[in-house]
Amino acid sequence: KNVFAVGATNSAGFGSGLGYVVDFTSRGPSADGRMKPDILAPGYALDSALSFSTNCKVEEESYLKAGTSMAAPVIAGMGALVREYFQEGWYPCGSRYCGATLNPSGSLVKATIANGGQYTKGVQQGGTENIIETQPVRPYDNNQGMGEANLLTTLPLKNENDFNLFVENDAKLVYGESKAYFLIIDKVGCSSDLSATIAWYDAVGTNGCQRCLINDIDLLVEKISPDMVKYYPNGRQSRDYMNTIERVRIDNASPGDKYKITVKARMLGPLSNEQAFSLAVRGCFTRVNKEDQASATKQEVPGVKFELPITYSANRKQAGNMFGILAKVDNVEINSFAFQTLITGRTTSVHVYKLSGYGNVYGTENFLNNPAAWTRLSPTGGIQVQAKGFGNPTIIPAGSFTPILIAKGLVQSIYITLIEETEMLYKAVDETHPTGAVYASDSNVSVMTGVGKGISFGQNWQSRQMNGAVFYSVGGTGTIEATTPDQTPNPTRRPTKQPTNRPQSPILPQFSELETTYNANKKQAGNMFNIIAKKNVEVHSFKIHTLLKSITTATIYTKNGRWQSHDKDPSAWTKLGTVSLECKGYRQPTIISDPSMPSVSISQGDTRAFYITLDTPELLYFFSDNNASGSVFREDAAIKVETGVGKGGLFDATYPSRQLNGAVVYFTV
Asked: 404-424 pLDDT, tens per residue?
């Protein structure tokens, strides 16, 4: 997540010329959904050294080469030039030694190069003139990222360009702190757009993380005069919570416009006291005024809203979660939550409860299964929320339930549950965080590890950490009821070992995902493939890959044993269901998941075939003669996925050596 991933573009004089991404360059997203590549550079038909002699005095010809191995050194060279630019005092006036010398951090070099990236025109097949029409590009997508690097649109150079540059080099932020920068488009004779980019080096994540960002820094650009407009980074309609490079580019900045640029430490991990970032701003301004704004740790601002992310790493699921929240300051008001679910593309119903009285959840209390001990805060029929699926926060919005007020030093237990479904994801943390221990914390609140819950105050599962986030304010005007705590509010006094009289709970299945590939060069209506179980598993759902960005339907079939010799025989297959899909488009996973579709059990050592087909021939897959149908394409500790066959229509034509794009979502017992 901290690398500067480089993609390749075409060169002048080849095919359609400059401004096109070449088709051989790898594209994102990363496994946890981050944008890749970050930047582009010429990588087709570049002069490279050609040597056949060991005699260093012999002059030998160069020759043309292609690849990201050509593009990456271009960016490395640009990085060296950017570093030299700052060290030799070219900043900010565009000539050597006209300014003070600056030793730039790696994050400043990265932010500066990304800030000058230029949009590309499309994807081109090598050096030919054949444009891949099915792979359109847009700013910040997984074809081009920040665009093609160009130092003439990056660094002010006297007599070469007319814009100005402002930078911050490794500025520090603590949790909740923000820095604001104000500018006016007022430079005469300047025709540049306005571009602002931040970059930072994030803390180390964990292997297999589903959302790997630890320290989240947010960039927001606002036009504050003559009208009010907010610009979010990387082409989004809201903040970016995934990437370590964020950019806002405004093409239509006009003379007299006033802008405010805000950089905020939205989230810091448990081992981080602060996070350094670098900022580069380019445009037609003459100066930038800087203002530091108070952080949450420096003062409490009445009514200010905060978000405490917990985790989005999941390996279990059930209906709900009970957990405690400790208030470290006065007048904490909990007004919204986010959780994670496998449900996607539709609404589901949620209830929110609070314990009637204060106290933490340690896993042995009678109130865990006693509805009378809880106060329901949501309407009788529940809260309808739009489920966003795996890897995305599903929001329980502010105003949908009675706010929860917590006095300083007290713990309030919360119960969030799906009403009729067992699709809420959480993480089993038995080894590291016993029930009742602090899991996530900021300067105002701590969230404790809780228990997983079956439907409607059902079965308990110990040491289950809620996935999602807590949204709250500090300094509200509500009244906190004076209730005597029914147990010690300080979780640090709890013994470090779990008590021996803790109720024994059955083991929930472990949630896993095996991704095949998102490289695609063919498409048709469907794909048949085999899954071999190395352990006892239940296949729950699938992720597929399609060019569609609209609603379509998928039908899923299965049969015991292999698909071979049954690819055109409907009678050999069992239909699991037909599911409505909200397709996410190229390079984005589209999830096939619905409560009406049963999970499919595969015993250790057995093989089961699956057939996924769309109602239109838009399912992407990968064809290669090196991957014969029936050969193992991907495997992990629990399952193997074989290369299958493409299918036209319903049980129609068969196309060999077609590898399903996407992933298999399953559970092990």
From this structure: 999 988 999 999 999 989 889
Encoding tokens for residue 145? Answer: 């990222």
Is 323 in contact with 353 (CB distance < 8 Å)? no
Question: Coil, strand or helix: which one is 111?
Answer: helix
CA gap 538, 77 in Å, rounded: 51
Contact 600, 536 (CB under 8 A): no
* Dihedral pair phi/psi, residue 170, rounded to 5°: 55, 50
- The whole-angstrom separation of Cα 65 and Cα 74 is 13
Q: How far is CA 403 from its chain centroid?
A: 29
- Structural tokens at position 609: 């075939």
- Are 532 and 499 spatial neighbours (Cβ–Cβ below 8 Å)? no
* 291 strand-pairing partners: 180
Q: How many DSSP H helices and E strands does the chain contain?
A: 2, 46
Burial tier of 596 (Cβ tally within 10 Å: 0-12, 13-18, 19+) = exposed
Supply the DSSP string of 562-579, one letter for each residue: --TT-TT-GGG-EEEEEE
Residue 662 DSSP label: S
Q: Which residue type sits at 185?
A: I
Verdict on whether the full-model pTM lies above 0.70: no
126: left (phi over 0), alpha (psi -120 to 50) or beta: left
Angle of helix 68-87 relative to helix 106-115, nearest 10 degrees, comes to 110
* Pairing of the two strands 663-668 and 20-22: unpaired
pLDDT in tens, 441-483: 888 999 999 999 999 999 999 999 988 889 898 875 433 332 3
Whole-angstrom Cα distance, residue 214 to residue 208? 14
pLDDT band at 249 (very low <50, low <70, confident <90, very high): very high
Burial (CB < 10 A; 0-12, 13-18, 19+), residue 313, is buried
Q: What is the rounded distance in angstroms from the CA atom of residue 428 to the CA atom of residue 426?
A: 7
Residue 509 Cα to chain centre, angstroms = 25
CB 250 within 8 A of CB 232: no
pLDDT, residue 613, reads 96
Interacting residues of 59 by C-beta distance below 8 A, sequence separation 6+ = none
**Minimal CA–CA distance to 419: which of 343, 493, 357, 483?**
343
d(CA 219, CA 168): 13
Which range (45-49, 434-438, 591-595) has the least confidence?
591-595
> In this structure, how many other beta carbons lie within 10 angstroms of the beta carbon of residue 129?
11
pLDDT on residue 499 = 36
Which H helix or E strand runs over 206?
none
